[in-house]
């Protein structure tokens, strides 16, 4: 299929554009239609259907029906911006492409030695804590679940009074702190980071840059992808990037504490489900 024809629909006639919109909204249904039935349901002529699929590079209607949905899912785009009234198939494709691109770029910037340093410090501490607020709380809660599974005690602090009091009183020897801030300029984050810095606490910041006010008070700053633009899905980029980084940390910690983590999971299942899953699996 010709990507440039789809991505630049000006090459379609008016009737072909309308047909294209109909097809993109009824991809499952067209698998069972004839040319005449498709034309009737789309409000166009059979000849328009033939011109349309031939313009896309298909030799016959059977080939078109069999491949159009998968081919549309493989389209490439010049950018990830969502357009006014864009078809669902295109937004689905763009989100997949955005995820892949963000992970690729995040991985490219990732320092393995920095990750190893973070993991080493994590191994030395009993507690892993998060200082976050607003939407970043969801990322912290997600990671907290897995840190608990690996045997860490993980708390998420979201209110300013909790954050400052925690920073004032937590024992630096026992706690490792993750902070998440897109801009790295939040005044409340600066206050908390400064207190923890002065008390010698090991802090890791996920932010768009290593040159921010908050990062100047953090032990380590791990950069995540972000653009300050809603149209370019900047927030989605940041959350995807940070989740990937957290998953890397969680998976790496799990790998280096493999047996202990699996034992912890088994103990949890016994308590939660009231059964010995290891024994049950052995008897299968």
UniProtKB/TrEMBL annotation:
Tell me which Pfam families the record gives: HTH_6, SIS
| BP term (GO), one | carbohydrate derivative metabolic process
HTH rpiR-type domain ranges (all copies): 1-75
Q: Which terms are listed as keywords in the entry?
A: DNA-binding, Transcription, Transcription regulation
Tell me yes or no: is Transcription regulation among this UniProt entry's keywords. yes
GO MF annotation list: carbohydrate derivative binding; DNA binding; DNA-binding transcription factor activity
* InterPro entries for the chain: Homeodomain-like_sf, HTH_RpiR, RpiR-like, RpiR-like_SIS, SIS_dom, SIS_dom_sf, WH-like_DNA-bd_sf
Protein name from the UniProt record: HTH rpiR-type domain-containing protein
Taxonomic path: Bacteria, Bacillati, Bacillota, Clostridia, Lachnospirales
